[in-house]
Write the structure tokens for this entry.
Amino acid sequence: MFPKIKSSKKNIYLDYAATTPLDGRVKKAMAPFWSGKFGNPSSLYKQGREAKEAIEDARLRIAEIIGARPSEIIFTAGGTESVNLAIRGVAKSSSHIITTAIEHHSVLRTCEALQQQGLKVTYAPVDSDGFASINEIKKAVRPETILISVMYANNEIGTIEPIAQIGKWLKNLNAERARQNLPRIIFHIDACQAAGSLDLNVDRLGVDLMSVNGSKIYGPKQTGFLYKRGGVKINPLIYGGGQERDLRSGTENVPGVVGLAEALDIANSTRVKQSVSLVMLRDYFIKELFKKIPKIILNGSQQVRLANNINISIPGVEGEALMLYLDSYNISVSTGSACATSSTDPSHVLLAIGRSKQDASSSIRFTLGKATTKKDLSYVLKVLPGVVGELRQLKITP
Ligand SMILES: *Cc1c(COP(=O)(O)O)cnc(C)c1O
């Protein structure tokens, strides 16, 4: 018998890594630009200049937050586009790229498409916590390597990668390569899961390219930017009117850009306090899960993980079935990554950290956010053990 607990009236949303609701302040900041100040930023009359000013103000705000110059910010339509622009923008035929085995599909599929065109790609392995290692990356470097792309934090298991260390090592390597007349290796990071909670200073991180999106930081969907260090040359994906310094043509998404800057600003000024409270909720939840459900496995690093991420494997339970049962209690969670829910293949991230196919298919991810309360989590902790117990008895194992 499934637990006779009433379905929660309130939706308990625990999938903030998939996307976040729009912050009210962001919505307010965007409001004037839908139909009032609707001008095209390229127009030279007042309406256009107003829109242009809003875009340049947003660019300046974002540049300040990440320690960059405004000219180094390219607005795009989201994380996937930023990643594509970074990787395909740098790629040249007959060159070599290094990335990791646990990247988001926007990186992996882009690399696979480039491989079809003859580019060489190395997918560096990660350890059992999901950490990329400088050693593995070092081993993969070739004379013709032009790009290293590593995610800042993993969207499935929350592990935070040692970006600053890689950046520092690469700086030295590039100095050595310059002496040997070899091409400089450009460093791109996918910071889409990190922007809400981690330091984004591009100099401290030592990065040349950085992808960020709005939809994971309580900003509008289909908004984002690519940071591109001055002097780094990339080609555009989209040609046209020459907006964004010729790197992203098309009439700008003015409300979106304004919303993105507001969202990043809020994230930046609240992230330290926010992280402290999320870590407390996260660790309480993990501790209780381990107390209440036997034989579960935590996926990802215990220490160096995103403040809001809990990913566990529950052997003997199909993650997808569990997700659907939780949905019937009005609890929204995810199995693996949202982008992969249409396929039943076990997560490439969990396989890469050494989980068996079974354990990978029995994984479930809870990601907490601004509205998550301890009460929400105690409700989940009331429902979950019973559902797991039933599913384990039914033996609809992966
Ligand atoms: C969500 C996400 C993306 C893609 O961003 P979109 O804005 O959905 O295109 C890329 N990388 C990571 C790590 C993500 O979490």
